């Protein structure tokens, strides 16, 4: 039976670990790249074929990391050939049929690599820019320069990409409101179709977290960070980018379909070390260790180290959180269809309190975050916890 689903491919390699990053990505592991790509293709041939036969082609494919664009051309081509073989892709699928995204670091792309991606049907790029200020880029551990980010966009256009996303961060060490404004102005001048903006979060285990613990990290004060948030949430809509999710803005028709599928409870298959899957109401996770992943795939064994049972309360929480992140909001009808119980029965008190505080509003049977609710989304999400 054909149904909508997504595919995620994880490339865990990077040239240098960014100081804020807590994703499963590793620097200095180039020696594993060839064997890892082979292992990834093995898992894709096994799992991808299984779900293609069950559900048809995926509606979205997303290659993330790490830094997918760090792979040498030959290895990238091997991986793309496998993707095309598994899903019978010709490379010229219409973007309305398939959204195929690859994350790229501006410091690891060139014309040859981008042309290769486009020739195999990749039709969307996501550049991790973060800032155009070279001093800030060095301060957060990025390997590229602001000029390289601009050049990467030009190369992408020349390679034929008509759907490009750029990531921007705010609240960075020593960052000022003026620097963020300049970043925003520079970014919209490049005319990406999609922009993701994230406030810096200090996650345990990162270099920045350790620096903060040692008192060696100078961050903007709370008032400045709030002004930064207000600036970006007013600036981008004023320049044609509609906010369709807490951290994401897009020109009309260029919303990330892959990300929307996560937020809309659509199943997805994750392939690669540390990749997560959500299939038939159950969540799975592959092991993080790269050599162990390679050995398991070479031996024909399983790489799934974790399987979460379907906990009804947790499933309700996740359904509510993810829907509320989007401009579409949390549908009473969709909640009932998914859980066979009314939203009111589970969350009546919470909904009333959030409305009273001006954090939630309701229209046509959908609950949505107000602008104030978007700003203080974590307070709303905490209120929707059941466990």
Q: Would you give an account of this structure?
A:
- By secondary structure, this protein is of the alpha/beta class.
- It folds into 2 domains: 6-263, TIM Barrel; 312-383, Arc Repressor Mutant, subunit A.
- 43% of the residues lie in helices and 20% in strands.
- It contains 15 helices and 17 strands.
- Strands 9-10-8-7-6-5-4-1-11 form a 9-stranded mixed sheet, sandwiched between helices. A 3-stranded antiparallel sheet has the order 12-13-14, with no helix packed on it.
- α1 (33-55) runs parallel beside α2 (73-86), α2 packs parallel to α3 (111-119) and α6 (177-189) runs parallel beside α8.
- The chain starts with 5 loop residues before the first strand and ends with a helix.
CATH topology group of the largest domain: TIM Barrel
Global mean pLDDT: 95
Percent of residues in helices comes to 40-55%
CATH first level of the largest domain: Alpha Beta
* Rg, Cα atoms, Å: 21 Å
Structural class estimated from helices and strands? alpha/beta
Broad shape: globular
Q: With helices defined by DSSP (H or I, 4 residues minimum), what is the helix count?
A: 15
> How much β-strand is present in the residues?
15-25%
Q: Which architecture name of the largest domain does CATH use?
A: Alpha-Beta Barrel
Number of strands: 17
Spatial gap, N to C terminus: 35 Å
- What do we call the CATH homologous superfamily of the largest domain? Aldolase class I
- Counted up, domains total 2
List low-confidence stretches: none
Largest sheet, if any? 9 strands, mixed
């Amino acid at each position: 039976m054909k149904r909508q689903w997504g595919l995620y491919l994880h490339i865990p390699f990077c040239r240098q670990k960014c100081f804020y990053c807590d994703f499963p990505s590793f620097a200095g592991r180039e020696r594993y790249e060839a064997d890892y790509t082979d292992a990834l293709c093995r898992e894709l041939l096994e799992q991808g074929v299984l779900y293609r036969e069950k559900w048809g082609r995926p509606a979205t494919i997303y290659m993330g990391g790490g830094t997918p664009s760090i792979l040498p051309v030959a290895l990238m081509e091997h991986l793309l050939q496998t993707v095309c073989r598994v899903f019978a892709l010709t490379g010229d699928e219409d973007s309305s049929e398939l959204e195929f995204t690859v994350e790229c670091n501006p410091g690891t792309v060139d014309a040859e690599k981008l042309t290769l991606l486009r020739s195999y049907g990749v039709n969307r790029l996501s550049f991790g820019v973060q800032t155009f200020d070279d001093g800030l880029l060095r301060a957060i551990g990025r390997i590229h320069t602001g000029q390289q980010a601009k050049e990467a966009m030009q190369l992408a256009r020349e390679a034929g990409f008509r759907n490009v996303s750029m990531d921007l961060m705010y609240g960075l060490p020593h960052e000022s409101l003026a620097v963020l404004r300049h970043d925003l102005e520079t970014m919209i001048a490049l005319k990406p179709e999609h922009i993701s903006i994230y406030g810096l979060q200090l996650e345990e285990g990162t270099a920045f977290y350790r620096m903060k613990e040692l008192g060696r990290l100078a961050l903007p004060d709370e008032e400045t960070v709030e002004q930064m948030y207000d600036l970006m949430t007013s600036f981008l809509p004023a320049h044609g980018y509609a906010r369709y999710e807490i951290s994401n803005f897009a020109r009309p028709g260029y919303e990330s379909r892959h990300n929307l599928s996560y937020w809309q409870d659509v199943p997805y298959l994750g392939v690669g070390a540390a990749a997560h899957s959500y299939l038939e109401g159950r969540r799975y996770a592959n092991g993080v260790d790269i050599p162990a992943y390679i050995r398991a795939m070479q031996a024909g064994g399983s790489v799934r180290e974790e399987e979460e049972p379907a906990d009804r309360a947790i499933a309700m929480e996740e359904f509510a959180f993810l829907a509320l992140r989007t401009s579409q909001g949390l549908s009473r009808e969709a909640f009932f269809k998914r859980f066979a119980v009314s939203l009111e029965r589970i969350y009546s008190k919470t909904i009333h309190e959030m409305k009273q505080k001006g954090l939630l509003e309701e229209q046509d049977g959908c609950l949505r975050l107000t602008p104030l609710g978007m700003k203080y989304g974590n307070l709303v999400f905490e209120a929707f916890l059941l466990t």
